[in-house]
UniProtKB/TrEMBL annotation:
Pfam families: NmrA. Keywords: NADP. This is NmrA family NAD(P)-binding protein. It comes from the Bacteria. Residues 5-257 form the NmrA-like domain. It comes from Kribbella lupini.
C-alpha cells in the first residue's frame, strides 16, 4: 500500500474503472471521486475496498477536499455534452487548479494520441489545453491513447449468426493504431505508482495497428464467422464537425504515432486486437449462458 491513497476521478467510467482494477491488483489504496456516492457503481467500489468521496469537476471546492492527502491522481476529461470541447477544457482546468491547491504530488492525465501535434481536431486540442495547464501547476505525466478497441464493440454485438458487417467512415486500407481500455488503465496505474516509469512526460499508447479490412479478417478468425468491412462516407457523421475532422485525420498518415515498445514495457501483456476480441466474445458468451 502507498502511504496515501491514489485518487481516481471518473472512477465509474471505462478508463477510471480500468485504472482502479489495475491499482487494486497491485494492492494500492484507492480513493474514488464520484458525483454520486450512493449510485450502484459507487457502492460496488466500496464493496471492493475503495474509499469513495463526493466530488464534481464543476465544483472546485469539492475537488480540493477530495484531493487532500493523496499520493497521486488519475483523471480524464470528456467533450461529451452540450458544452463540447469548451466544457472539457473548463473541467480539466478546474481539476488542475484544485490539484495544485491541494498539493497533489503527481498527476497522470489521460489525453489522446496526437494531442500535441496541432491536429485541429477540437476534442484533441481541448485535451492539449488541459495538458498545458497541468504542466504549469503540478508535476504531471500523460497517457495518450490511440483509437479505443472498445469503439468497435457495438459492431460485434448480435446473435452470432450470419455475416457480420463492420462499418466506419475510413477507407479499408488505411492502418489505424488502437489500444484496449484495460491497457490504458494498466499503463496509467504503473505511472501513478512509479512516476519514473517513463522517461519524459508522455507516452502514446498502442496495442495493435491494422487496416479495417485486417480488423475484419482478425474478427472472422477469432469469432469463427464471416466478417467483412464496408467503408461508409463521412456524411454518416452528420454535422458533427469534430468527429468528421478526426476521421479525416485518420486517413492522413502518419496519424497516431504510438510507442509500441514503451507501451509493452508498461503493460507486458498488452492486448492486440485478436486477444481483445477473444476476451470480448468470452465475456458475452458468459453473460448469455
Amino acid at each position: 500500500m502507498t502511504q496515501h491513497p491514489i485518487a481516481v476521478i471518473g472512477a465509474t467510467g471505462q478508463q477510471g474503472s480500468g485504472v482502479i482494477d489495475a491499482l487494486l491488483e497491485q494492492r494500492q489504496a484507492v480513493r474514488a471521486l464520484v458525483r454520486d456516492p450512493d449510485s450502484a457503481p459507487a457502492r460496488a467500489l466500496v464493496d471492493r475496498g475503495v474509499e469513495v468521496v463526493a466530488a464534481d469537476q464543476e465544483d472546485t471546492a469539492s475537488l480540493q477536499r477530495g484531493l487532500t492527502d493523496i499520493g497521486s491522481l488519475f483523471f480524464m476529461t470528456t467533450f461529451a455534452g452540450s458544452d463540447g470541447p469548451e466544457g472539457e477544457v473548463r473541467r480539466g482546468l478546474a481539476v488542475a487548479e484544485a490539484a495544485a491547491r491541494a498539493g497533489v504530488p503527481s498527476v497522470v492525465y489521460s489525453s489522446v494520441g496526437g494531442a500535441e501535434r496541432a491536429t485541429g481536431i477540437p476534442h484533441f486540442e481541448s485535451k492539449y489545453q488541459v495538458e498545458q495547464r497541468l504542466r504549469d501547476v503540478v508535476p504531471a505525466k500523460f497517457v495518450r491513447p490511440t483509437f479505443f478497441m472498445e469503439n468497435l464493440a457495438p459492431q460485434f454485438a448480435g446473435d452470432g449468426s450470419g455475416e457480420l458487417v463492420l462499418r466506419l467512415p475510413i477507407a479499408g486500407d488505411v492502418p489505424v493504431q488502437m489500444v484496449a481500455v484495460r491497457d490504458i488503465g494498466a499503463a496509467a496505474a504503473r505511472m501513478l505508482i512509479d512516476p519514473h516509469a517513463i522517461d519524459g512526460d508522455a507516452v502514446e499508447l498502442g496495442g495493435d495497428e491494422l487496416t479495417m479490412t485486417q480488423v475484419a479478417e482478425r474478427a472472422a478468425a477469432v469469432l469463427g464467422r464471416a466478417v467483412r468491412y464496408d467503408a461508409v462516407p463521412l456524411d454518416v457523421l452528420g454535422d458533427d464537425e469534430d468527429l468528421r475532422a478526426m476521421f479525416r485525420w485518420f486517413g492522413t498518415l502518419p496519424a497516431y504515432r504510438a510507442d509500441f515498445g514503451l507501451t509493452r514495457r508498461l503493460v507486458p501483456d498488452v492486448h492486440d486486437l485478436a486477444a481483445w476480441l477473444s476476451e470480448l466474445s468470452g465475456v458475452r458468451a458468459g453473460a448469455s449462458a
